[in-house]
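Good morning C.,

I know you're traveling, so I'll keep this short. The sequence:
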Amino acid sequence: MEDQKVIDLVKELVNRLLSQSQTPNPNQPISTNPNSSIDSTQFNHALRYAIRILSSRMTPSIASDEAAMAESIKRQLVTQGKSSEALTFADLYSKFASKTGPGSINNKWAVLYLLRVVSEDRKLANKQPNSTVSRGLPAIFDSQLSDNSRVSNDKEVGWSGGVLMVSKDPDNMRDIAFREFANLLKEESEVSEEVLVRDVLYACQGIDGTYVKFDEIIDGYALYDSIKVPRATRIMVQKLCELGWLFRKVKGYISESMDRFPAKDVGTVGQAFCAALQDELTEYYKLLAVLEAQAMNPIPLVPETVTSGNYLSLRRLSVWFAEPVVKMRLMAVLVDICKVLRGGAMAGAIHMHAQHGDPLVHDFMKRLLRRVCSPLFEMVRSWVLEGELEDVFSEFFVVGQPVKAESLWREGYRLHPGMLPSFISPSLAQRILRTGKSINFLRVCCEDRGWADAATEAAAAAGTTTGRGGLGYGETDALELLVDEAAKRIDKHLLDVIYNRYKFKDHCLAIKQYLLLGQGDFVQYLMDIVGPELSEPANTISTFKLAGLLETAIRSSNAQYDDRDILDRLRVKMMPHNTGDRGWDVFSLEYDARVPLDTVFTESVMSRYLRIFNFLWKLRRVEHALISAWKTMKPNCITSRSFIKLQQAVKVKLLSTLRQCQVLWDEMNHFVSNLQYYIMFEVLEVSWSTLSNEMEAAKDLDDLLAAHEKYLHSIVEKSLLGERSQGLYDTLFVLFDLILRFRSLADRLYEGIYEVQARSTDDKKKLSRQLSSRSTEPGSWVSEGRKALTQHATKFLSSMSQELDDIGKKYSSLLTGFISELPVQQHIDLKFLLFRLDFTEFYSQSRPNT
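The tokens, ready to paste straight into the viewer:
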């Protein structure tokens, strides 16, 4: 109902305007019937045009402010000297603005604006009576105008009314200007724009056109200088041809790489990169096909008449090329970067360009990277779940090399930092490496197949499958989840195999008991029975005999109750020896650690165990020597009647020498006992306790290796076998040699005393028989009588006392120096050794500079 009412009002308005445009007859009234005096065709055209104007969305260029518009009208009236009219307008506007509710006008500002425009239009019409500015609707539908013209040429009608500004180009000057501009372009250019568009499209496909060709000198497509075109057109062509230069570079890289594909420097990642680039070029070809179809249409002279036409000009081409140029520039940059890269390094370099804020660039790079990284993620999946290193072209960041079984874990596989893409963190790469190594270690060294079930469980827990294509670029969280699940399950299975099937803890304990001399009864019995044999020259000792003695020691001690597999691994080893070496210097024990235990107990590890054994064996030998010396000194039956008959000086000398020997033995025994206690308890037992705790807490084989390495390093450092304690170690062995020298001297001393005792207690009859039987032996003590016996005893005791004094001075000097160096050692446990050796501060107070 409302719409019909509006239509009727518009019809009445058009009828009035058309009626006013005719020659007025004062005797004839104005008719409201459109068929009375107005042509129906003209009326219908005018009505449609009016409705189109009223229905358009065109708005004035000024702001819609009702109060400002009213104020402007009042100011204009006051300026013209119409103050009374301004007051009248203000009163009417206040009533008009206050009226609300049904029947009121909503858009009051538009009404005020219309009134102002009508007022200004009538003033302009009064000043220019012959102007067509306000001739209204009839001028638009003049039958003499062409269909494409929008201007009026009606100068005959002399009406002065209406409110619409229809045209400002009564003489069709705009159309004439376009024609003149087209003629000017033809004069300035030898080549039409259609031909240049076609050549540009050819150049964008890497093909030389008629006028646009590739110039090797400038390394790009260019329009020949001899061709006459406007400068703006030449610049536009050169700008558009950048796309062709970029396309040529990308296409050349793809062709060159695919021709060399079997080569190692291309690889599967490079092939995937070329395939992704080729897919992008396929989309580019589709765009060019569409543009070539549009290029077949002619370019119109006046663009406004064919705004919806499918033609192609250079400017339109620049709009079409905006997005392809961005993509092609990215591809060209990637091509330049990836020429010298391959594998993970190539994927990482491309990933760095994906960190972009432009959504277009980000999506393009993400789509490209999914294709490029597909081979890399497949390598990760195969390595983590199957332990297979499918890397024919050395593109993966995990590198394998052929090694022996015992070196598989440490040297068989390693990370290649140059091939590690930036979207995979170093910690994640380490977990990936360890997971694949664990599978290969189980398969090759442990001959175990239980890892397959663990890998399947890990894939299920991570929400993926063990098949191909489960992972891709942008799924780093899923990759980390898969790696973590696989590492957790496979590492747990590996430790179960090592602990339960191969009894790793039992072997570690066996090495501690036998190589580190923790089995006391076995070590003591072994030293007792091999002592005589080891006192012989090293080159005369039989290894088979020592092996038999070792077996005897095992059967004669609690070692016989150990696992037979462990006892069979314990063997005698004779180290390389030089001339003059004794068996004590070259004897050692070794433990045969077979696969897979030799991954932990490598040759270097066993060599350190051998060094520790040699030190502990020397310490036990020194202790054994002191015990033997004590056994010799303990049955002190020297104070016999025979010595009463000797001179007082000899008795004093004897007691002095014996006391000197006893004091020196006590001092040496104090040092050796405390040192052995420190080594056996504060070093070995504490370190073993730490190792046991860390073995229980280990989550993978690397943790187990690190715990054992820490255990071994702790023993070496605390036992003065480290590089930082080399001076103390040398001093310690000199002290050991002095103790062994003391034991030999003590044996000589007591053997001499026993001989003097035996000679002095013989009866006279026995003495006379010996004198008669050995009268021919010059220099015999018996033949020289009691006086000679006394002289020789005095000389012997003096000699022994002097040697004991020399040994005592050297020992005290070395021990004092040894103790003085302990506080400056970096390891804190050595301070406990200092406390045990010098708890009374005897050595500290005896030093001259303290």
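Safe travels,
E.
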